[in-house]
Every structure is written in C-alpha cells, then in structure tokens.
Amino acid sequence: MFAVEEQWPRPTILIVDDAIENIKLISHALYGMADLLFATNGPDALRIADSSRPDLVILDIEMPGMDGYEVCNALKANPYTSECAVIFITAHEGTSYETQSLAAGGIDFLTKPINVPICRLRVQNQLTLKRQKDELAQTRRDLADLVHHLPSFVAFWGADTVNRYCNDQLGHWFGISAARMLGMSLDSVLNEETMAQLRPHWVGAMEGRTISVEVTLFPSSARRRIAQTTLVPNWQMGVVAGVLMVLTDITDRITAERALWEEKERMRITLNSIGDAVIATDQQGLVTFMNPIAEEMTGWYSSDAIGKPIDNVMELRDANNGHVLRNPIYLALKEERIVGMALNCNLVALSGQQSAVEDSAAPIRNQSGEISGAIIVFRDASEARAMAIKMSYLASHDPLTGLPNRLLLQDRISHGLQVARWSQTHVAMLLLDLDYFKFVNDSIGYTAGDDLLRQVAHRLENELSATGTIGRLGGDEFVVLLPELRSITEADEVATSLLAAMAEPFELDGNRFDLSISVGISLFPDDSSDEETLMRHADVAMHRAKQDGRNRYRFFSTELEDLVLSRHLLERHLREALQENRFEVFYQSKVNAREGRVIGAEALVRMYSTEGELLSPGRFIPLAEETGLIVPLGKMVLEIACRQAASWHEQGHALKMSVNIAAAQFAAGNFPEVVAEVLDHTGLNPDMLELEITEGTLMSEADAARETLIELKALGVHVSLDDFGTGYSSLAYLKRFPLDTLKIDQSFVRDMLNDKSDMAIIQTIIALGQTLGMELVAEGVEQREQAEILASMGCHIMQGYLYDKPKPASDWSFIEPTGVARSISGN
C-alpha cells in the first residue's frame, strides 16, 4: 500500500471520565484514529479543551462535582470550544438520558459497557462529519475571498431589483460599499442613462436568458467606463428569483482596440495611397497583404496572391544574367534585420514583362518581440536607373568620342596601380598625340575635325585589347592604360600595333587624310611611383618621340627602351633559329652511383646566334615561353632526343631519354597525340622515354593534368616530377597523379652539406619517394661527399658535374663519365 499524505491535521479527541478503567477502555477502542487527551473531572476537561481545542469530546454524564451536562454547556459557551462535537456516554439505559444528551448539545450517545466496533464507527462518523464541515467552511472562505478579490463587480439582485449581495467591499465601482449596497435598488445604484441601456437586457434575464453585453456606465460623466456585463438568471423552484450581475471593466481594452483599428485604418489608407508597392508575408514567406501598386506591378490580384509564396508573386531576376534571385523577404526573416535593396534587380510580372526595381525588406515583430512576418517595399526604378546611368556616363566620358574622360581615367589608373602593387605586375601608360592635327583642323574646320577625332577614337578602340583602357584628355590627346602587365614588352607590342593602325588612311566626306601619332610610354613601378609621376613621365616621353621625328614611340627610360629593343632582336633571332635549325640538343648523363654505370640521359636544348655563339637556355627559353614559340621548339627537341635515343639503342646502348616538357606544351589539348606521333616517327620504345614535368605545370589545371598523365601512361612512357619541393609541394597530387620519378632539385643538393634545412628536406623527399614506391633522382651533384650522403639515404640515381657536363651526342663515347669509375655503396 502507498502512504497517502493527509491534507488535514490529525484529529484530536478528548476523553472525559472519572473512572480510569473507562478511559483505558475507550482509548483502546479508539486506538490509531486520533490523538487522544484525557481528563477525569469537569474543570480539567474545560482547561484542556480551551488550550488544545479538540475535534471531538467523549464526555461521561455522571461525574462528581461537575457532571457532563455542565461541562457540555461550558464548552458551547466558550467561543474557542463551541465547535467541538460532544458524544455523551453513560451506564444508564433509557431514552430519557439520550434525549437529554442531545438536547444539551451532544451529537451522539454511547452506553456502557462500551461496544468497541460501535464506538469506533460512531466516532469515525463524527470525525468525518467534522472534517467535511471544516472543508466546506474553508471552501466558503476561499470562495468568498476569491469573489471579493475579483477585478470584476459581482452582485445578486432579487426579482424586485433589490440588492442581496455585492463583492465590492470598498465601493470602488460605484462609490457604494457592499454593506451600504445591501437593500438598495438597482436604479438607485446606476443612473438613468445606464439603466436605459441595461433595462431591456434585465427583462431578458428575468425571462430566463443568460445575457452578455457591453454597457457604458455613466456615459455623460467623468466616471464613464465600459463594462462587459453578464446577467445570469437565478432559478428557484422553476421561477427566476433574481439575477446575478457580473461587470468587467473593458474600458482600456476597448480604447486600445479602437485606437488599433484607427491605426490600422490609417495604415491601410496610407499603404493604398502611397506610390510604392508593399507586400507583407507571414513567417514562411506566404503573402498576407498587397497594396494596389503591388498588384499593378506584379500583375497579381491580392485575392489570388494571399497564401502564395512571395517568390511566386514577386519573381526577381538579376538584370545582368537573368538568374533567379532569392526574395529579400527570406533574408530579412532568417537574419531578423532590415535588408537593403538588391543591385540590378528586375521584377518579372505575371505577364512576363520585366521592370527594374529597388526594394527593401524588414521583419515584423509581435508584442513579445518574436518575428511574425516580414514586409517588402519596392518601386519601379527603370527611369531612375536609366537617368543615373546616363548621368554617370556623362560625368565620366568624353562627350565627343564617348571615351573615358580624365575623371574616369584617374579612377582606372588608381585602381590599376593598387592591383599592380598587390600582384607585383606592371602598369603602362601610353600618351598619344596626333601629329600636325592643328594644321588639319584649321584646314577642314572644327566640325569636320571633330568627325575625324571620332574616327581616330574608334580605330584606337578596335586595336586595343579588352584589358586596356583608352581615354581622351582633350584636344587631340589620348591615353591608353595597360594594367596587370607581366612583361614590359607588352607595352611595346601595343604601341607598335597602334602606330600601324594609325598608318592606314582616313576618309572624310570623300577626302583622304593621312595621320600619325607620337606615343610616350611610362611604366609603373619601373620609372614611376604614383599616378602623377606616371602621367608626367609619359608626357615627357611623348614629346621626345615628337622631337625624334614623330610617328614613333619612346619609353621614358632609355634603359627600358634598350631592353625592349634587345628583346625584339632576340625574338627575331629565335624565330630565325627555328626556321634555320640553329638549335642543338646536348645530353647530360644520369648515373646509378651504386652500380657505377650510366643509365640514362637528359636532353637539354642549346641555341647558336648568327655569329655562331652558343646561347644559354636562360636567355631564350623564357622568351620562347612568352611568345608561344616554346611549343614548336619543345616538339623539335622531343623528336631529336627520341631519334638519338633510338640510334643509341640500335648501337647497343639502352639509355632512358629524359626530356623536359614546358607548361604550354603539356597544356595543349593534343600533347599525348604529339608524343605518340614522335614515338612512331623515331621508332623509340616508349619505355625508353621519360617526360620531366614541373609541379607548377601539374597544379595549374590539376584535373586536366591528371587526364593527360593517364593518357601518357597509357602510351607506356615514364613521367618524372622535376624540381620537386620548389613549387606547390602538395602531397595530394603525389597520390592523384600517376608519377614514376621524383627529381630532387639542385637548389637543395647544392647547400646540403652546409644547410641543415636542405639536408632535412632531402631526407623527407627520399623517405616520401621510397614510401610511394617512386624512383628518386638527385640533380646538381658536384661533390663526392654529396653523392655518398645521397646514396646512404637511399637515392642512387644522380646527375651533375661530378659525373658529366651536358655535351652534344657527337662527343659521347660511352666511357664511364668522371666520377663513375667506382661505385658508391649505399642503402
């Protein structure tokens, strides 16, 4: 059994009897039912009862000195014990005793000797009745307390409209306390104006209907209040005996509701009258309101749009690319903030017509501060945007030619210099001035001269690439800005093309005009450090071009000009060398230091000048890459090297041939086909060809590079990663790319004996190659100690001046090169 917590305190029973044996017997009979107190005479019983206030007194009638009836009378006379229930007990039989006991105020009667079960039942019944009586009294007190503290006025009026009850103890409602209101008629409490409103409803209540209605109390006075009035008929024996009236003050609520309605009405009129479109949504972005302008712009009727997603009703697209845009409503709801207008935003109406719009969205919060929806305000911005574009264009462009003016040029120059500082590139400014244009202008008139200037501007624009900017400073002066130049020679090429373009005759009204330009070139950061210096130096160079005979260009720096001329000369020699076959391939041996034998050769191209001077690759390879000549040159070297390897193989010397592949060669879409074609022409076994590719070549377009490597591996050739550790050095591509060999760059080998960092890097590369099962080659080995340490680490294939220098095939004798005479032991 579970113990149930008692809601009421344990009852107390006082047993009064002059015989101790009877007290013991009764105590035994009532054991466990209550807390028991005892007295053997009347005075003691009254004293104990006054201090402990028992719930029940079991009282013997016959006691010496003060009998039970006297004790009972005394208990009832004491206000503290008057509620005590009394059960009389006597040894006498007869109804007279029982009648007298009940008349004296007892509630029950027991006879001696005590029948224990009967005694327990009667006592338990009385205790239960006492507890129920106490509970009922407490409930009445609670109910009275509740009613008295209600914020409402509660009163009962008889059928004669006379007050029988009121909870307004202090008279807050009508200035009449509850005590004074008793017996007053309803019309004496309420004035005539209020009674006029209430009277018909009172009649309805008396007819048996429960009525709830708003009544204005004292409408013409300062005490005016609005009450929600409820009239409940009270039925007694099938007849309405009165009416319970409940008044609740709703003045503040009604005032707030009316103010809210007026505010909403003002807002509705405002939203329907303003020139902007307005759409409101709920928390999910479903439309809840549209004003007439929004209906007009979207093509949706409000009745059809309500409940639809905002994206359906207000479809937004990017004005530049037509991509669908997310409505700002969703961002306002998600981030709980005001979202500004989207740039270049078009609204697509239901008809499909598009119009430029400006919009802003904001979340709506309820009284608790929680997001309950959002609202978006937008307007047609087509005219404003067109006007802004036009004004911006006019402010930044030359009205005669439509080219950028000085203001826009300054902005472009400033931006170009910032990018150049960050990307470590060059910016070139070309200042162009028409030669003898003043004489032409004076001879044909200013109107025709303006037409000629427009033709000049158009021709210059057509000649310039999309990356450059051409602008007009005024008169016959133009500026060309070339940002992000990787090489200063690009400025030379542009100047040359502009001079050529201007050499073509102009035609105006059937007349031919021959014009030329003088161009001054300034370079950032080579000869200028800021915008002002760049412009001033270009102007100086332009005047020098005019002094030197016009129709030409000049660099501000003579050193740069000499460099450009030298580059021109070298490029011409490079092209002639390709045509006249003035290239020769040298070969440097690859040695297996552990076995002491030559196992391969690396092909290295050399070029001869017209005077027969041998030029180093560092002088012509970068130019070949810059001009794109590296692709035909690389194919030529590949074919020569493969043919030589095949020839050696026929002579009994099976050496693997390594050929360096430039990035431009590798990136060409047909490179695997080129390799296959060369192998086919030369008859070289693919297993005898190794292609050396740098890290940068692989990582520029990693996915395409991987596909190319897979195709090359399918041909059967080997692939070596050249200069490993100097580029990206990402371990990811070692796993992704099908590579056979890692070449340790000579920059690490050169200082490995003196630099612990280089030694550690070499150890790491060798360990990595061994783990991946790749062949290792160290280049730039010049000292025997380097070779011994490399071999001890596990790298046995080496090349460098310790063994051999690059030399023509005719000088190869296949005698062991210097340093291979004896093997180097290693792990």
From TrEMBL:
Residues 341-393 form the PAC domain. Signal peptide: none annotated. Residues 263-336 form the PAS domain. Coiled coil: none annotated. The keyword Phosphoprotein applies. Keywords: Phosphoprotein. The modification 4-aspartylphosphate is found at residue 60. Residues 567-820 form the EAL domain. Pfam families: EAL, GGDEF, PAS, PAS_4, Response_reg. The keyword ATP-binding does not apply. Residues 425-558 form the GGDEF domain. Residues 12-127 form the Response regulatory domain. SMART domains: EAL, GGDEF, PAS, REC. This is GGDEF domain-containing protein. It comes from Silvimonas iriomotensis.
